[in-house]
Structure prediction request, 634 residues.
Amino acid sequence: MSWKTLDRHTPQFDSEAPPLIGAALKQKILNFVPRYETSLAALLPALHMAQETLGYLSDQALVEIARILDIPPSRVLDTASFYTHYWRKPRGRKVVMVCRSISCEVTGGREVLAECKRLLGIDEHETTPDGEYSLVTEECLAGCDHGPCMLVGEKLHKHVRPEQVKDILADPNNDRIDGPRSSLYDGLKTDGKKTETAE
Amino acid sequence: MAEFEPVLLRNVGVENSASLKVYTQRGGYRSAAKALKMNPENVVEEVKRANLRGRGGAGFPAGVKWGFLPKGRKITYLCVNADESEPPTFSNRVLMENDPHQLLEGILIAGYATRTTTAYIYMRVEFHEQFHILQKAVDEAYEAGWLGKNIQGSGYSLDCYIHRGAGAYVCGEETGLIESLEGKRGQPRIKPPFPAVEGLFHKPTVVNNVETLCCVPHIIERGADWFTSVGPPHSTGPKLFCISGPVKRPGCYEAAMDITVRDLVYGEQFGGGMSDGKELKAVMPGGVSMGIITADEIDCKLDFEDPRNYGLLGLGTSAAVVIDTDTDMRDVLYNICRFFGTESCGQCTHCREGTAWAMRIADRLRKGAGRKEDLDVLVDVANNMGMMPGMNICGLSDGAAFPIRMIVEKFRAEFEEHIRNQRPGRVLEVLETLR
Ligand SMILES: Cc1cc2nc3c(=O)[nH]c(=O)nc-3n(C[C@H](O)[C@H](O)[C@H](O)COP(=O)(O)O)c2cc1C
Ligand code: SF4
Ligand code: FES
Prediction:
């Protein structure tokens, strides 16, 4: 323990700033609360929806969620910092998630990851300068029979060969799935002025 | 190995199998209708008699677990474990994307038997397609009166919600799942109290795997005697087996628990043999947590008992990954160590430190900088972690200890040779570290 007082870089945000979470998203979060015995239990869904709406979970967003759910902000930070899917810094519009677990590795997953890095020009946990893609690796995506696989947004790309990565990344619909879609956990669209509107 | 008529996967490949219409046309919800006319205790009794052992990894009999719920309780929760993140397991995914109503019917019957008030399906967030398919099925079931208030006029009501996770393997552990559902970090709880007594929101809670629950409608419909007639006496009922890696037909197959690893890898109706002329080196037959067997040991039976004879922790998720002779065991070791090193929740010293140090040692080994004593240190670390030596809160640490110890012990000669030669592993990785 150092006797010096560390500068902990306490993040400051303007408490007078207009709220990031508008009425529509707030209502969407509150809709989850009656499902559970405590409002805290609605936190994971709330974080998912706020992240989808705002791009990532800033300190201000965490504090606002704490107020909406009537729980301490420290609780929100505690939870948000545990899970790999919550971003505490800006991320790209799409997240590329390459599986790094055993089945994908023995079928060529590392080569796929290397090709992603090369084509995007970024390393893991980085975002392309145009803000389009962030790249991460994740443990087994439960698609091992289709290995190597990678997830772009909601879409799982299967049996990916390194030479296919270029086409996959160039496809504007590479993050969309076919079949049914529920908007239950979706974020809301923002119109640039940070006010959300229902889709 | 007898001819096998699929039960759990019977709707896979049928057009629109995920829709309520097709499911009911093919006999779906008949079993639920039958159960709702039975006494809940008799439903529990039937499942007990069937000796339905949990499919999530531990193999605990489901009926017995339901029997632990305290008498006179007002609220009971059912948590459906759809977190499936044990590499290389994907059978729950196959069940949910092809036949979501089979799961919902299982939830309804299990819920009725345990007098559950609310069921939560805890689903890993990476399951996007599966979430949307299952959510649609839930909506359909509510509309058709198979969920919600007074189900089919029986007087029994059940709410069912899908709760999406946020990326953490340890949330598959039943108390980690409960903590996560409560909105906290997914850190497992010390047991006892077991969830059946004090679980979600401090109420009696049942946690069951997706596949376990999918077996329930068939037990009610065809009877416990049918269920026990499938497979050996200690491992009853149909089971899903996953196979992946360099085989001709990777996938999820259904069989009785009388098959061997050899059948799963080479059987025509299963893996179909090695692909591209590759040669078999090893198999991790129960998910990575259970450990590894060599190519000489593949006559291991895939039931709840035999894997232990080969030093494995158990049947696990009965998902096998095949490792070929071109694969460097140092890479396999590192991959496994990295998995547990990053997924340990960090509460227990032996698990947190043990997995992290194992990862560092494995990293050194694959870079060609291994030391003579490293192998003994790895085995020592593995022997000192886990619930079995009583050091840790949850089974993640046993799941790390078994593969680490078994890989080192069974492939010791290969590791020793690499240490002597001090030659790094795959070139690609080494280039990366130089960058
Ligand atoms: C680290 C760890 C991860 C686990 N992950 C899962 C999982 O993803 N899915 C699952 O069904 N069970 C998982 N389990 C087992 C559960 O703790 C629990 O035994 C199971 O959900 C009980 O259901 P069952 O009796 O129907 O098998 C895991 C256990 C541990 C120790
Ligand atoms: S054994 Fe490991 S994963 Fe399990 S509770 Fe302890 S630290 Fe967490
Ligand atoms: S190992 Fe990659 S999806 Fe399972």
The first helix of chain A runs from residue 23 to 32. The beta strands of chain A are 94-99, 133-138, 150-152, 155-157, 189-190, 196-197. Helices of chain A lie at 23-32, 43-54, 59-69, 73-80, 102-106, 109-120, 165-170.
